[in-house]
Amino acid sequence: MVQAVTTLNTERRKAESGPAGGCASSGCGSSSDKLAHLPEAIRAKVNDHPCFSEDAHHHYARMHVAVAPACNIQCHYCNRKYDCSNESRPGVVSELLTPEQAVQKTLAVAAAIPQMSVLGIAGPGDPLANPERTLATFRALSEKAPDIKLCVSTNGLALPELVDEICQHNIDHVTITINCIDPEIGAKIYPWIFWNNHRIKGVKAARILIEQQQKGLAMLAERGVLVKVNSVLIPGVNDEHLKEVSRVVKAKGAFLHNVMPLIAEAEHGTFYGLMGQRGPTHDELQALQDACSGDMAMMRHCRQCRADAVGMLGEDRGAEFSIEKIEQMDIDYAAAMARRAAVHAEIEAKRQAQREASRQATQTSGGEVFVALDSLTRRRPTASSTEPDLVSAAASASASASETRPLATQPAIPLITARTALSSAKAPAGTTSRSVRIAVASSGSGVINQHFGHAREFLVYEADAQDVRFIGTRRVQAYCTGDETCGEAESALTGTLRALEGCAAVLCSKIGIEPWDALEAAGIAPNGEHAMEPIETAVAAVYAELRVSGALDQTEPMSALSA
Ligand code: CLF
Ligand code: SF4
After folding, report:
1. Secondary structure, 3-state, 61-129
2. What is the pLDDT of residues 204-225, one digit of tens each?
3. How far is the CA of 473 from the centre of ligand 1 (A)?
4. CA–CA gap between residue 125 and residue 417 (Å, rounded)
5. CB of 78 closer than 6 A to ligand 2?
6. Cα(488) to centroid of ligand 2, in Å?
7. What is the pLDDT of residues 169-197, one digit of tens each?
8. Full-model pTM
9. Is 101:133 a contact under the CB 8 Å cutoff?
């Protein structure tokens, strides 16, 4: 039988892996309305913002325009040759744009990608250290594309002086990167700032930056602008301190806290990279996100985007919209806006239908989660598969062929509660079931719809007897992208196995035999039986399956036994 937890012994995870957490209040996916508790005005602001609403990121796209090259501070994790590490993966911005080019590009992308809902400026330097370029872009877009949400990300140094202008330009979402509120810690992160025409160093510089950040945050909150705080988790520098940061920014009115892992590799040429400062492990990041979470939501689906990213979170279609290409595009923006409105209406109808379907399939009643029993049936691939190299992948190596029947021929099985199913498994006395991490391949829409080999990232969920919650993403190199990459397939698969470390199962729409075997050997159960199902429902079902199998049994501590 497949072991529940991989035993891969790996080297330390590299920063190619994304954050490992999920919205604090609840899980991810489309199974329920995560925004239901919010006032209507705020709900309207975040409903289609892929960063401020975790659920929205399954359905809506964002784009960044790189109009802001300069910065007014230095962070030890940043090299100016690369994208802003606050909001970007390292990698040079392909093209720096003028405000006019940025507007043209935005209109082109919005016409071509109807899911687009947000335009953000996030570098490659600090947008507010380049106020003319940044504000000119926003000003033009608020006139020409009034249906697109505007969003800006800043280190906060110049924020207080620009709050009024930000509000004038209809910018409803601002991100401030706040890594500390203690200047002594700040001096270990920021070697200098440029302030009132002087370069200021050390603790004094950090103190000024922190004061400006806190002032700007309070001013925006007073004006009703939604503020997200990004913090870079730097082990040994601000890891313990970030809990206090979270508490303070929440008290000042921040809407969302996004703790991101430090990306520091020597080849990026950053101070931290060259000094060997490590980034956090998945577990360290999740532990801190959990520790910070209270009644303020934690963002756990951040992809640390490039400053010129285009598309759904986690994808980058920027190459399709180079200046050269968009100059040749003929854009009827009025028609594009109408089409986008129609597509957004369709998305909302789909989200609503998914919520309703999930409400029926995953009814929560008295804390009990309901799942369909047919999802507990495991099937193995057969030689008669119509796709010999691709198997519908929920097979158990130990299951016999006679146990399986095509899904379409299986009788409908009534819904039962997962807890009822689980309790019927009669776990041995003195044992409990532990929580388990399950990875999912999804290209969007809140369902399991991606081939394992095509996934460039996996969504990771944590399930236990009470809940399914999203805890983060793990980035990988696509395993199967075509003939030209076949020679690299083995290393890509090895990287994927490393990225999935700690997951008990991976759910996808399809999977090849080779990765199937490799996953099983690594103790990760491949599963393709939930293709096109809502993510949370499928994860709950697989958790139930694992629990029924006894894979999650653990001995209860003596204190629990005697209680
Ligand atoms: Fe861009 Fe940032 Fe606005 Fe989003 S990204 S400016 S808030 S529209 Fe989002 Fe990307 Fe994470 Fe930023 S996933 S890096 S949090
Ligand atoms: Fe780099 Fe952004 Fe820091 Fe400026 S604020 S130094 S652009 S990471």
Report:
1. EEEECCCECCCCEECCCCCCCCCCCCCCCCCCCCCCCCHHHHHHHHHHHHHHCCCEEEEEECCECCHHH
2. 999 999 999 999 999 999 999 9
3. 15
4. 52
5. yes
6. 34
7. 889 899 999 999 999 999 999 999 999 99
8. 0.79
9. no
